[in-house]
Amino acid sequence: MLTRESSLDDVADEFARMARGNRFLDVGTGFGIMLDKLMLIPGVSVVSIDPEAWTFEQISSKYRDEVSSGRLSLLRMAGERLEFGDSAFDTVFSIGALHHMSDPVSGLREMVRVARQRVLVADWDRESAMWMNPHTEEELSASKELVVPGAREMGFRIEEYGTFYTLYLDVRP
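Structure (tokenized):
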């Protein structure tokens, strides 16, 4: 159960427990917070994407066997233009990536398009600005002001926790 005191690591734990199926997409690799939780689940395959790929070398080294076996793929790709077919993944995850997207609502639409069962998203809220991350209140607010109405329109359940907010959608229960 998430609370106002929860961290993004707690969110990743919660999202991993909520995962459905065995083929996952992690949108916005970043430091690998979500990826670390998903790799603990036996029998899953994970594709993790990031447009900058700045941590791929470190993550590839950490998960050398998983990358070699094909259980983990790291791809340089923007979340707003996912190069996968419809319903390609059972569950799609994204933690801390929406505010980096030039068009976060398109990013959400793409996540829904490629998800077969569930989409789980979390992003920083304005209370976290310049404290838990290097972004300003204005940057985080501008992103959220686009995301929340778009997410509502798509049917996401939205929960706010002060420093972050979450979006939940069962695509095809």
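The mean pLDDT is 92. The chain has six helices and seven strands.
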